[in-house]
Write a structure and sequence with these properties.
disordered C terminus; 13 helices; alpha+beta
Length: 393
């Protein structure tokens, strides 16, 4: 109620409350984020809402009620004392350093546990309000290394909405847009110009080292735009750009889907829904082909698989989502935002996928192009021979 009085924006208040419960529930109370996603998706379907942005303050208040009821049913609660909330949040961040996902990441990247982690307290910038939003971008284009920005943005959103990869977002640069997609550069040249200026300033400040930048932007009552840098880190460059299938063998008749190319070039392999590196390694040994992971979305749980798989395809996300960033870090070929991909479950509980009319099962031959974003059925013999002989030319 105080938030509403201060801002005069009931929707912003209830949406912020929704987000707070989601984050506190997952980070501090250890609840799987899929629980909140499921509640929200079911609510939107029942109320005919096309997306979260379509929910007004009354509907968002209903969602908050459903969240709190779920916590209560599980014997959990969020303390009302804001300082207790803060203490619990700080402890949870420190404890996460020794969590399973963190240990998997350090093992995969050969990082020392002795480094430790830190907590930063900062004022919240409300990107989740009309006229405001968030963007995550690289200061260089991943494939060409040309000056950026190259990334994604979303109105009425926070950075977490972008990097989680649960939704498809707006490309920043016109060069990214492709058929049927409008970029921020085309729709709002002024705002894009601010991102372009900021990309150069951040990179210059970091000694010319290409960066991955997360920002929130706001719009004042007089129309003035402001960009707030929330974090910046070194951009992962990964390996060199690979060949495309049209340079090796004709695959045009085998195209079954199209997404956004996030990293790498042409790759043929065996589809997998593996949940552990051991499972992926067994499939690779059995079939003798590189493993291509299929996911609705990738998250930090998948980091342990990255040293084992050679490709990944996700149904949602974008060039700055977890899947894309992990792919760049581990030099894994990646196609994201393949909207025709759906992950389903068979009668025996086994996962399988559909891409358009094509059914793909564990071990099915599949090919992807991390440059064009195309997905193909079957294999390109030249790329599989190169993999088997160790020839990367």
């Amino acid at each position: 109620e105080a938030f509403i009085q201060e801002t005069g924006d009931p929707r912003l208040a209830w949406d912020s409350y929704r987000r707070f419960i989601e984050h506190y529930g997952t980070v501090v109370l250890g609840i799987n984020a899929d629980l909140f996603d499921g509640i929200l998706e079911d609510f939107m379907k029942k109320n005919g809402a096309a997306g979260r942005e379509a929910l007004g303050p009354d509907r968002l208040q209903d969602v908050v009620g459903l969240y709190n009821a779920e916590l209560s049913d599980g014997g959990l609660r969020i303390p009302e004392d804001v300082y207790e909330q803060l203490r619990m949040s700080v402890r949870a961040v420190y404890a996460s350093w020794y969590g399973v996902r963190a240990e998997q990441f350090r093992r995969a990247t050969a990082l020392s546990a002795q480094w430790g982690t830190a907590v930063t307290l900062m004022q919240m910038i409300s990107g989740n309000t009309a006229g405001s939003g968030a963007a995550v971008f690289f200061t260089r284009a991943p494939f060409t290394a040309g000056p950026g920005p190259y990334g994604e943005s979303r109105e009425d959103a926070t950075g977490d909405d972008l990097v989680r990869g649960r939704q498809s977002n707006r490309p920043l640069a016109k060069a990214q847009a492709g058929a049927g997609r409008k970029s921020l550069e085309e729709l709002d040249p002024e705002l894009f110009g601010l991102h372009r200026e900021l990309a150069k300033r951040v990179e210059d400040a970091m000694g010319g080292l290409p960066q991955e930048v997360e920002v929130t932007y706001t719009k004042d009552w007089d129309g003035k735009r402001s960009l707030f840098v929330l974090q910046t880190r070194r951009m992962e460059s990964g390996g060199a750009f690979g060949a495309t299938f049209d340079e090796i063998c004709g695959m045009e008749s085998r195209i079954i889907g199209r997404g956004v190319g996030a990293h790498g070039g042409a790759l043929s392999g065996a589809a997998s829904f593996a949940s552990s590196p051991e499972q992926a390694a067994r499939l690779e040994k059995k079939i003798g082909l590189p493993v291509i992971l299929l996911r609705k979305t990738a998250n930090t749980d998948d980091v342990s698989l990255m040293p084992v798989v050679r490709g990944i395809v996700t149904a949602t996300g974008g060039v700055t989502s977890h899947a894309a960033v992990l792919a760049q870090k581990f030099d894994v070929t990646a196609v994201v935002a393949c909207s025709t991909l759906s992950i389903e479950t068979g009668p025996q509980g086994e996962p399988y996928a559909r891409i358009g009319d094509t059914v793909i099962r564990e071990g099915s031959p599949i090919s992807i192009d991390g440059a064009t974003g195309l997905v193909f059925s079957g294999s390109c013999l030249s790329t599989t021979r190169a993999y088997r002989t160790g020839d990367s030319s």
